[in-house]
Amino acid sequence: MTRPDTRELVTSAVANAEHDTDGFKYVRDEEAVTSIDEVTAAVESLETQQDLTTDAVDAVGVLVSTLTVELQQQSGLEIVLGNVSGMTSIDKFGENTDIDADVRADIWDGGKTVGALPAGTSLIWLAPTTAAKHNITSTSGSDDGAPVGGGARTLRIFGLPDWDTAEVNEDITMNGTANVLTANLYVIIHRMEVLTSGGTDINVGTITATATSPSATTVTARIEVGQGQTHMAIYGVPSTQKALMNLFYASFQKSGGQTAAADIFLKVNTNPDVQTVNYVQKHSDGLLSVGSSKFIHPFDPPKLFAGPAIIKLQALSGTANIDVSAGFDLTIVDN
C-alpha cells in the first residue's frame, strides 16, 4: 500500500475546510492555509489513520511549527502595513546623553543634565497638567519655513488632545526663534518630526514644544540639533485604546571605556486624566559594562496597559556621565 504524503494531506484538508480567516491569508503550494486551528485539526485527523508512521507524524509536527511561526510573522507585518483594522504598531525609542551618578532621569531628549540650551530641560519629563496649545520654536533662525532657511522648515506634531481621544497630528511651518502656536490643544506630545528642511542640516537649532498654560514653562517635547525628530521613550495611550508591549530594551555608553552601571525602569501612570506626576514601576532591568552594554526584555504574552496611561522608561545611574538609549515596541488596539 502506498502511504499518503503528509504534506499533501494537511494542505488538502485545510484547503477544503470551512475557513475562518481572522484577517489572515497564507498560501503554500497554491493551497490556502488560513488558520492554525485548521492545520491542527488536519493533523489530528491524520494521526488517526493506521498507516501513518511515526516519521510522518513528526514531519507533520515540523510543518505545523513552521506555519505557526510564519503566520505570527505575517500578522505582525499586516499590522505594520495598516492592513489590520483597529491595530497599530508603535516603535518608541529615546536617548538621554548625559546622566550623572545616583540620579534618576527619564529617557528623553531633554532629560540630560540641566542647564541653558542645548543642555537638558528637566531630568523627569513632565506632561501638561491640562490640555494646552504649545509654542514651537528653535534656538536657530535657520529653522524657518517662511522665508525658507537652511534648517527645519516644516514640522509634524503627534499627540493626544485629551485622554479620551486617539492620537492626532498637525503640521506647522517653523519661524526660526519666534514662537509658532499649535492649532490643537494637547495633554501630551509624544513625537515631533521634521518634514522638510534646507541644505544646511535637518534642524540647525534645538526645537522645543512648550505648553502655554498653566505656567507656560513645561517643555513637553524637543528635538536635538541635527536629529530631525524627538528621541523620547514616552508614549500616551487614550481611554479608547489599550497598549500591548511586546518588549523593551536599553543600552548605554560610558566615555573612556570605564566600568558603568545603571538600572532601567519601566514606569506607567495609570490615571493621567487625574494626575500627571505619579508612576507605578512595572519592571526593571540592569546594565553593567566596560564601554557599552545592552539588553532586550521580551514579553510573551505581551504586557497589557489599558488607557488612559503614560508609558515611559527611566534610568538610575551608578556612574557619572553615561549615555543611555532605550525604547519599547507596542501594538495599539482600539477598544
User: Beta-sheet strand percentage?
Assistant: 35-45%
- Architecture (CATH level 2) name of the largest domain: Sandwich
Uncertain spans = 1-33
In DSSP terms (H or I, runs of 4 or more residues), the helix count works out at: 3
Give the mean pLDDT: 83
Q: How do the helices and strands follow one another from N- to C-terminus? A: HEEHHEEEEEEEEEEEEEEEE
Overview of this structure, please?
- There is one protein chain.
- This protein is mainly beta.
- It has three domains: 6-80, no CATH class; 87-94 and 235-334, Sandwich (Jelly Rolls), CATH 2.60.120; 126-230.
- 15% of the residues lie in helices and 42% in strands.
- It contains three helices and 18 strands.
- The protein has helices at 6-15, 36-47, 54-80; strands at residues 26-28, 31-33, 87-99, 104-106, 134-138, 152-160, 168-173, 180-181, 188-197, 207-211, 219-223, 234-237, 241-254, 259-269, 280-290, 292-306, 309-317, 322-334.
- Strands 4, 12, 14, 15 and 17 form a five-stranded antiparallel β-sheet that branches. Strands 3-18-13-16 form a four-stranded antiparallel β-sheet. Strands 8-5-10-11 form a four-stranded antiparallel β-sheet, with no helix packed on it.
- It is globular and about 75 Å long.
